[in-house]
Write a structure and sequence with these properties.
Shape: globular
Number of domains: 2
Structural class: mainly alpha
Helix content: 55-70%
Radius of gyration: 22 Å
Strand content: under 5%
Order of helices and strands: HHHHHHHHHHHHHHH
Largest sheet: none
Number of helices: 15
Number of strands: 0
């Protein structure tokens, strides 16, 4: 969202220049980054600034409390998480117009679905590491408010971000060149290529659809979503690394995934990793059965579906992917080792997986009428 605003790009570039000029100051990227994060939000929208200033301060207090409290730790831990889920749910209800309240005007929760995952990750860190997991308010605020990943990820890990905060700012010319190229590529994908691809999609989707139109549109939209979202990720990763932080990759050649399980390790990888780590963490102390693993996979995908939106299409999307991954777990099809299977079988699995994915990603269009029109088109055959 920020990257469509030229002033945002100039602001980020200016911050990088300031960091380069002050690289000999040990804490430059910690102190200056905090000022930049808050200043950016304030200029962008003062209500957004007020909301996140309060949200960050309250959660930091909860995080520090959880690091130190010795009684009913599990209850406090679950309670803090449920409160944050409740806040996200409240913003969803307001977004869908399910209820209205005068105080709702103060809630400008841009990026909250990403930032709440970071808040919960910090609570996990506090719960499992206690006092050893404490971080300074400065670093915690930078973690939550980190502008390059604020609205569209990738999702940062608390332990990795805090570790990077302790390192001096050291970006050399080779890194500048590589990341500037990546930002330019991301802008081309998210702004230029995505626009023309969406124009073509809208034009064809506006026609009377036959089966071949619908098949084309399903795969075309799959590619469109990849171009758009990976473009945002490229921009975020490029700017994030120029600011001195190692941002995780979000897309790892998902079109070459030979199973749904591997697909979700390569597509929006930081999101899939977050849910796997935080759900499976409570079961990691003992070996789990295939049935338990399949059930947890189904739960994870349903949660990922609901994370995208509290609507029936997203719930069904989560159930669809969850059931497919659960079946892979139960029947031993989760992983396909290219070196241990024949090439025809390996590429068949890739084509099969991509077809299953393409059939469902139209839900990301946010337009149920268009989605149903495309699905109905699969049943419309030309007459000869």
């Amino acid at each position: 969202m920020f990257y469509f605003n030229i002033y945002s790009i100039i602001g980020l570039a200016g911050m990088i220049a300031v960091l380069l000029l002050t690289r000999h100051w040990k804490d430059n990227k910690r102190v200056l980054l905090l000022l930049f994060n808050f200043g950016f939000l304030l200029v962008f929208n003062y209500k957004l600034f007020l909301f996140y200033a309060a949200y960050t301060a309250i959660n930091y207090a909860g995080y520090r409390f959880l690091c130190r409290v010795t009684y009913a730790r599990l209850a406090w831990f679950i309670g803090f998480i449920l409160v944050n889920i409740g806040i996200v749910s409240l913003t969803r209800f307001l977004e869908y117009g399910w209820f209205n309240h005068p105080a709702a005007d103060l809630v400008v929760a841009i990026g909250l679905i990403y930032n709440v995952l970071k808040v919960i990750d910090a609570y996990y860190f506090a719960y499992f590491f206690r006092k050893d997991g404490q971080a300074a308010a400065l670093d915690y605020a930078n973690f939550i408010l980190f502008i390059p990943t604020f609205t569209s990820g990738p999702i940062l890990r608390f332990r990795d971000f805090i570790a990077d905060s302790k390192k001096p700012y050291s970006v050399d010319s080779a890194q500048i060149e590589a990341n500037v190229k990546r930002i330019i590529l991301g802008l081309f994908k998210a702004v230029v290529l995505s626009f023309y691809m969406r124009t073509a999609f809208d034009y064809i989707a506006g026609q009377e659809l036959m089966v071949y139109h619908s098949i084309f549109l399903l795969f075309w939209f799959y590619l469109l979503i990849y171009v758009d979202f990976s473009g945002y990720s490229d921009i975020a990763i490029g700017f994030g690394r120029l600011l001195g932080y190692q941002i995780p990759e979000n897309f790892k050649k998902p079109f070459l995934s030979p199973s749904m399980t591997q697909f979700w390790r390569n597509w929006h990888a930081s999101l899939g990793d977050w849910f796997r780590e935080h759900i499976f963490m409570f079961f990691s102390r003992k070996a789990i059965s295939k049935t338990t693993g399949a059930s947890l996979s189904l739960l994870i995908m349903v949660l990922i579906g609901l994370w995208h939106g509290y609507t029936w299409p997203y719930l069904l999307y989560g159930l669809y992917h969850g059931c497919l991954i659960a079946l892979e777990n139960l029947f031993g099809f989760s992983l396909v080792n290219k070196k241990k299977v024949s090439k025809p079988y390996y590429y068949f699995r890739i084509i099969w997986t991509q077809t299953l994915v393409a059939f469902s990603v139209i839900v990301y269009s946010g337009n149920i009428e268009i989605a149903m029109k495309i699905y109905r088109g699969l049943l419309s055959f030309p007459s000869f």
